[in-house]
Design a protein that fits this description.
Helix content: 40-55%
CATH architecture of the largest domain: 3-Layer(aba) Sandwich
Distance between the termini: 65 Å
Oligomer: single chain
CATH topology of the largest domain: Rossmann fold
Number of strands: 12
Number of domains: 3
């Protein structure tokens, strides 16, 4: 790490550095004893990993890397699975629903795997989480809540909860409705009869021994809460985990703001300190409504990666995490192209600008050594427009044929990133663009303007530069009787491409070919 890079990182206003500075303020001389600074992300394994899981781990990793650029502090990232939680509801997207219904209320690690592959439902979903995180190359340590409870690592912290039982109640009860407060308990014993995580009032019998008493099927039972015989209500559990593990940084969504406040107070009661962390805004759907699993109005990770690159998703996650953003299929093309725009400028930027460039953080900091130096010769938007005029049945070889006009000697072997973009563009066009395209007939001043464009394109060589073609298009727009250039370009998009928006026309015509473009013009005039 060079001194220039460290100095620039310390001064940078990019949000990962702003967050890392909070950790530096927490430990100006490093964490006592040289212990690594602990970053944590949480996962509820009652469902499969999703786009929110990706965003949270990615953003936390960005802050971790920023801290490493700013200071010589060792760090760790723990992906914590809350798999001791009782199953409250059977997910809609898993098999063997009836079997799972029989086990409602039991810890997720004590419920059979509905997929029949692992020793429990939680073990299956935990495996999916690790496979998911490994797929994207995240560096992390997996920690299971069940393993910590059953292995005794949480025992001392659990005794601390019993020692401070009333103080925790004093924090939580004022936040609850009257009927909830009447039965609320920070500790949830696991029934020795049914195996269910019980939501019942608990009396502390012996804090140092970890003993409590509670009613279970009409019988008063005295039982230890240690060694996996109980778990904590999740706000108390969150606080206990922060203290027991020594968590220094954890970000969470805006919907958990109040929970974070209560858990922070409980952590203080337990003798610890609330971690620092970013509170990020939630994603919205294309109507501006909050995304809901039950409504199914969100966008899955698999959907994004069917039409856009992994880097484009990381780019979208990086931008303005404290602002609400719409998450739907329509944002993918722009995210793909904006990622490459930022990547294209990175190499020539001063160090201060580089640290504010999203690609620096997408590619794990490290002084920018991992940021690719080149960009594809054609934008994703241009490929989409090409696929649009070619129709829903266009193929990759056909696209490569058109690219020969624009990128000589280009092949999938010489341009693998472009090859991937072509496949993504064809899929996006087939599924979401082609059904909406509708080329209209030219009208009014558009007719003469298109005739003039056809006349001026006719004598040009097949390999005419895109810039020369753009100049012709631009001049016709200025002198063709349009109120403004926007009307001319809109007419080109609607008559030639069937869309209300489109690419730089000089680039499109050079890519699609002058002869093919003249055919489009003839169709628009017919």
């Amino acid at each position: 790490m060079t001194n220039d890079l460290r100095t620039a990182a310390i001064a940078s206003k990019a949000w990962p550095y702003e967050e890392a500075r909070r950790v530096l303020k927490r430990y100006p001389q490093g964490k006592p004893g040289g212990v690594p600074v602990l970053f944590e992300t949480g996962y509820g394994p009652s469902g499969l990993p999703h786009i929110g899981t990706f965003n949270e781990v990615l953003r936390t990793t960005m802050v971790r890397r920023a801290l490493e650029e700013m200071a010589d502090m060792p760090t760790r990232l723990v992906a914590f699975s809350d798999d001791m939680d009782g199953l409250r509801k059977v997910p809609d997207n898993v098999p063997n629903q009836a079997m799972l219904t029989e086990h409602l209320g039991k810890p997720l690690t004590r419920i059979p795997d509905p997929f029949g592959k692992y020793e429990s439902f939680a073990h299956h979903n935990n495996a999916m989480l690790r496979e998911f995180l490994d797929r994207f190359g995240f560096e992390y340590e997996f920690v299971s809540s069940t393993s910590m409870y059953e292995g005794g690592q949480f025992d001392e912290a659990l005794k601390g909860v019993l020692r401070n039982y009333q103080a925790i109640l004093d924090i939580m009860l004022p936040t609850l409705r009257a009927e909830r407060a009447a039965t609320y308990s920070p500790v949830l014993p696991v029934s020795p009869k049914s195996g269910i995580v019980l939501q019942v009032p608990v009396t502390v019998v012996d804090a140092e021994a970890g003993l409590v008493s509670f009613e279970d099927e009409g019988e008063t039972i005295t039982q230890s809460i240690l060694g996996g015989q109980a778990k904590l209500q999740w706000k108390v559990d969150w606080a206990m985990r922060w203290v027991a593990l020594g968590v220094d940084y954890e970000m969470y969504g805006k919907d958990l703001t109040d929970s974070g406040i209560q858990s922070g107070k409980i952590a203080q009661v337990l003798g610890g300190r609330k971690p620092d962390g970013l509170i990020y805004e939630m994603f919205l759907d294309e109507k501006g409504e909050k995304i809901s699993k039950s409504k199914g109005n969100g966008l899955s990770l698999e959907q994004w990666l069917s039409y856009g690159t992994e880097e484009s998703l990381a780019f979208y996650a990086y931008r303005e995490p404290k602002s609400a953003k719409q998450l739907h299929l329509g944002v993918i093309p722009r995210a793909v192209d904006e990622y490459f725009q930022f990547r294209g400028t990175y190499a020539g930027q001063e160090i201060e600008k580089k640290l504010g460039n999203p690609v620096h953080h997408i590619h794990n900091g490290a002084g920018g050594a991992k940021v690719p130096s080149d960009v594809p010769p054609v934008t994703f938007g241009l490929l989409l427009n090409l696929a649009g005029v070619m129709g829903p049945h266009a193929t990759a070889p056909q696209v490569w044929g058109y690219l020969a006009n624009y990128v000589p000697d280009a092949t999938a072997a010489t341009h693998p990133e472009l090859a991937n973009l072509i496949n993504l563009a064809l899929a996006y066009n087939r599924d979401h663009v082609a059904p909406t395209l509708n080329r209209r007939k030219a009208a009014g001043v558009e007719v003469a303007a298109l005739q003039r464009l056809d006349t001026e394109l006719a004598p040009l060589p097949a390999d005419a530069p895109a810039e020369d073609i753009q100049n012709i298009v631009y001049e016709i727009g200025k002198t063709g009787g349009f109120e403004n250039l926007r009307d001319w370009f809109k007419a080109l998009y609607e008559t030639l491409l069937g869309s209300s928006a489109g690419p730089r026309m000089g680039s499109f015509i050079a890519l699609y070919g002058i002869a093919n473009t003249r055919k489009l013009i003839a169709e628009a005039l017919a």
